[in-house]
Amino acid sequence: MLSNPNRRWVLARHLEGRVAASDFDWRESSVIAPKDGEMLLRNLWLSVDPTQVLHANGETGPLSTAIGEAMHCTAASRVVESRIPGFEPGDLVQGWSGWEDYTTVARGGEGPGAFPVQKVPPGTPLNLALGTYGATGMAAYFGVVDVGRPRAGETFVVDSAAGGVGSVAGQIARILGCRVIGIASGSERRDWLVRDLRFDGAIDLRTEDLEERLTALCPEGIDIFFLNSGRSSVLDVALARLRRLGRVVLCGGTSYYLAKEAPPGLKNLLSLIMSRGRMEGVLHWEYDQRFGEAREAIGGWIRSGQLVSPEDVLVGLEHAPEALARVFQGANRGKQLVKIADR
Ligand SMILES: NC(=O)c1ccc[n+]([C@@H]2O[C@H](COP(=O)([O-])OP(=O)(O)OC[C@H]3O[C@@H](n4cnc5c(N)ncnc54)[C@H](OP(=O)(O)O)[C@@H]3O)[C@@H](O)[C@H]2O)c1
Question: Is the CB of 184 under 6 A from ligand 1?
């Protein structure tokens, strides 16, 4: 058995409207050998997702993290020891895991340890497997292509545009011929969207008047609005500018995840009727049969230099709480990841 300690961040308390390092305790324990039907994983990269706070607050049923348990997340890992047929030591896998060096996962049954773990497609870098080729990229691709259904020349507006999904969704819409406007907190992130991701325009939610700037940047109105933040105040401003047969893609509700109260309702719902608009959600996992199509398209765009895969990487397991706090501070540029080991 491994003599290395298993370093872990365990949940110390439920999160009270914000994420702080003091919500987690650092522990070291020994690595436990897997039993029949289990395998031991060495975690290499951790995905940092806003929905993790729902696990921490017990709002995701069997996926919730119990107090004293290593914080749940998805990760890319190497199999150290396997007692599951079809998985061998050295295989690279992605799936359910935790904020720790080593995780034991089980196949089948109930509970977090039984969450599906899949092999990483051969040749796929682990950071991309968790990001642009993972849930982040799949939500962006199917949200834009299938739900948004863009046509060349249309105006596409995306919020949380500097985040993981938003930064990819905006680029895909640009590649498909749209004029793309991003909304993001912070002037540096706003400027980054235009300079590095080649958006046609961007708005800083912290210092600019959203209504004024959207009117200036979208004088003809909005054909497609892609919502990540769930902010009803932002959605309302977009609805008021929706063009005839406009589409609203509902992808995320980050503002709900730590909120104690439901956000205020919409004022401009009638705009959806008057524009004969369509508002529709996207769930990336419902497209799993078409992930190959999305990865092929995204891979082609990356290779041709049309799409960059923005990542915000903190190195070291000790930074996991800080990484989760960053996404709730609107500090991340692109997909937030934590790299904890090379191999
Ligand atoms: N439907 C699906 O299949 C699917 C798949 C993956 C992710 N998602 C969802 O899509 C959204 C984006 O995911 P992501 O992984 O790319 O995360 P992300 O956008 O990188 O998340 C961080 C961003 O959320 C915004 N934010 C932080 N605190 C907030 C708050 N209290 N209220 C509103 N916005 C806040 C900040 O951007 P700004 O302040 O600049 O807006 C921050 O940069 C999330 O809601 C996620 O759960 C959905």
Answer: yes
The ranges of the chain annotated as CATH 3.40.50.720 are: 135-287+294-302
CA of 166 to the centre of ligand 1 (A): 8
Residue position matching structure tokens 């969704």: 169
Residues carrying CATH 3.90.180.10, the chain: 5-125+310-339
Query: Is 256 a residue whose pLDDT tops 90?
Result: yes
Q: Which of 15, 19, 147, 160 to mutate to test the pocket of ligand 1 (most atoms within 8 A of CB)?
A: 160
pLDDT in tens, 60-88: 988 899 999 999 999 999 999 999 999 99
pLDDT in tens, 131-168: 999 999 999 999 999 999 999 999 999 999 999 999 99
CATH topology of domain 135-287+294-302: Rossmann fold (3.40.50)
Query: Does the CA dihedral 52-57-59-64 come out positive or negative?
Result: positive
Whole-number Å distance, alpha carbon 160 to ligand 1 midpoint, is 6
Ligand 1 mutation target, pool 51, 199, 228, 279, most atoms within 8 A of CB: 228
Say which CATH superfamily domain 5-125+310-339 falls into: Medium-chain alcohol dehydrogenases, catalytic domain (3.90.180.10)
Q: What is the DSSP letter of 36?
A: T
The protein residue with its alpha carbon nearest to ligand 1, atom 43, reads 330
Q: How far is the CA of 214 from the centre of ligand 1 (A)?
A: 20
* CB-based contacts of 274-277 (< 8 A; 24+ apart in sequence): 275/242, 275/243, 275/244, 275/245, 275/246, 276/244, 276/245, 277/239, 277/242, 277/245, 277/246, 277/247, 277/248
